[in-house]
């Protein structure tokens, strides 16, 4: 049975007729400025500040050189055409990163890594090697992979993803193998001994 007070409270928009104002000691102060607590610090959250233009996370300075790509470039217009030129190479590099990030065999390695930078530098490396007129601005293979603890199986998985990316881009098998032959010697720089 409704009491009169309950009905009055309902009409006033409150469903709890027992509601009494909070004592001053119970009230949450709204005077504390909103920005005074560093919640990232409180909860140990590490913030990464990406470059607003490139979207990349800045890394420690290193010497840039095409030699860091660690392969002699091709000079073969037919081969380049088989890869679909620069656009085809870009698509293949992006797809390789996406497939690898989604590949349960190796996805953990890519977590918390700057895949914006990885897509750019991988494209530059492939573009340089294919003789498509790019400079490679990334690090050496040893420097880029030294803390990743990669094994031979990881390398095999990555190569399979690259084959898949080239297959999707309709690169003929013989042309695929020419790029793979340039990358194969890099395994000793990438995997841990
Ligand atoms: C021949 C084989 C490989 C090539 C040509 C290659 C190429 C590259 C390039 C160009 C970079 C960027 C360098 C830079 O940031 O300056 C890079 C970084 C990276 N690579 Fe590879 N890579 C190879 C093998 C692998 C394998 C097998 C894995 C893992 C399964 C892998 C995972 C990564 C990751 C996670 C990064 C980012 C490292 C970081 O940001 O600290 N790579 N790789």
From TrEMBL:
Keyword Nucleus listed: no
CDD domains: TrHb1_N
UniProt key word Transport: yes
Protein name: Group 1 truncated hemoglobin
TM region(s), chain numbering: none
Taxonomic superkingdom: Bacteria
Keywords: Heme, Iron, Metal-binding, Transport
């Amino acid at each position: 049975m409704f009491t009169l007070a309950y009905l009055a409270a309902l009409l006033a928009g409150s469903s709890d007729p027992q509601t009494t104002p909070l004592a001053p000691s119970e009230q949450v102060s709204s005077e504390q400025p909103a920005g005074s607590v560093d919640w990232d610090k409180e909860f140990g959250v590490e913030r990464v500040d990406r470059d607003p233009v490139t979207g990349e996370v800045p890394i420690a300075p290193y010497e840039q050189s095409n030699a860091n790509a660690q392969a002699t470039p091709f000079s073969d217009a037919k081969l380049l055409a088989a890869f679909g030129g620069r656009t085809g190479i870009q698509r293949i590099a992006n797809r390789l990163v996406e497939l690898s990030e989604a590949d349960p065999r190796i996805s953990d390695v890519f977590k918390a890594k700057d895949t914006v930078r990885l897509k750019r530098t991988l494209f530059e490396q492939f573009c340089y090697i294919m003789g498509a007129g790019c400079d490679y601005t990334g690090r050496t293979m040893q420097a880029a992979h030294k803390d990743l603890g990669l094994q031979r199986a990881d390398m095999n998985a990555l190569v399979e993803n690259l084959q898949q990316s080239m297959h999707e881009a309709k690169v003929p098998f013989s042309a695929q193998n020419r790029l793979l032959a340039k990358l194969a010697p890099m395994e000793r720089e990438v995997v841990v001994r």
